[in-house]
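Tutorial, part two.
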Amino acid sequence: QVAEAVAQPLLGTRRVTLVAGGSGDIGVSRLPGEILDVVTRLPAAVEALTGVSVTQVTGDKCHPRP
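Running the prediction step on this input gives:
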């Protein structure tokens, strides 16, 4: 659900410009990693801005067990 919410604004995007430095993937192959990075950092950012812990609010919903 978090990944969907982060990706939602990209649905209407006609062009994405990625600026990269250093080594690693370039171009479109970099986009999934960038989205994953945003999703990974999002809970800490939300908590820092609001004082609300996303993990406590969502419980195991964000961390499904195999």
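The chain has one domain: 1-50. In part three we will examine how such features are distributed along the chain.
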